[in-house]
Amino acid sequence: MLITVLTLFPEMFPGALAHSLPGKSLGKLWELRVINIRDFATDKHKTVDDTPYGGGAGMVMKPDVVDEALRYAISLYADVPEIIYMTPRGKTFKQSTAKELSGNKAGMIILCGRYEGIDQRVIDYWKTNHSMREISIGDYVLFGGEVPAMVVIEACLRFNSGIMNNENSVEDESFANGLLEYPHYTRPALWNNIEVPEVLLSGNHKDIANWRLEQAEKITQELRPDLWTKYNRT
Ligand code: ADE
């Protein structure tokens, strides 16, 4: 799987993705290509942004520069990858989005905006002609799409069973079945005068599975009533 990131801050990558399982498998089970959008500026000052028409604060990324960068990125794929623009205006990223995106074996191109955003014409063009998706990682505004891109990449890599060292764990974890995950315990069996739940020491796999489902339901009901309502409906 090839993941291409288009950014004005290429030095931010691989960043967090260079560590732990994503880092160990980088270059083996997945490839990261980072493209500097500024390389596609055509004037001698390498201008990538300009003041907004109609006035107002901040700068807007130029449509011609972003379009050239996207064209170059897509030309490096034999099959059609997912094309994603990270923006707080996008559809909220969920575990189900990560699963869907990771299903595209060609990989993905992630466009990271900075400043006030990108000229709307190039966004509309790529949405219409290349099915570009706009994705947000939550209802808050960051300085740019780079950290959100890392979030999307990490969540997607977890669906690659070669990268995860335990195949079961994506199926088991929070959100996979619409519930939060059950609690975990390790040694010592008695810590701070608090015991590990007895069933976990029983060795009875059926009882343990039942207890974990009960706990997952209880925790979801308490902490995420929104998820609980949805779970009950399905
Ligand atoms: N860029 C800035 N804020 C963002 C967010 N919340 N999600 C995705 N991209 C962003």
What does this structure look like?
By secondary structure, this protein is an alpha/beta fold. The chain has 2 domains: 2-157, Alpha/beta knot; 174-233, Orthogonal Bundle (Trp Operon Repressor, Chain A), CATH 1.10.1270. It contains 8 helices and 9 strands. The strands form 3 sheets. The chain has a 5-stranded parallel beta sheet with strand order 2-1-6-5-7. Strands 3-4 form a two-stranded antiparallel ribbon. Strand 5 (82-92), helix 3 and strand 6 form a beta-alpha-beta unit. Helix 3 packs across helix 5 (146-157). It is elongated, with a radius of gyration of 22 Å. The protein binds adenine. Adenine (ADE) binds at residues 86-88, 136-138, 140-142, 144-145, 148.
Query: What's the CATH H-level homologous superfamily of the largest domain?
Result: SPOUT methyltransferase, trefoil knot domain
The CATH architecture of the largest domain can be given as 3-Layer(aba) Sandwich
Strand percent estimate: 15-25%
Name the bound molecules.
adenine
Strand order of the largest sheet: 2-1-6-5-7
Task: Supply the number of helical segments.
Answer: 8
Q: pLDDT average, as an integer?
A: 96
CATH level 3 topology of the largest domain = Alpha/beta knot
Topology as H/E string?
Answer: EHEEEHEHEHEHHEEHH
Alpha-carbon Rg, integer: 22 Å
- How many structural domains are formed by the residues? 2
CATH class of the largest domain: Alpha Beta
Distance between the termini: 33 Å
Low-confidence stretches: none
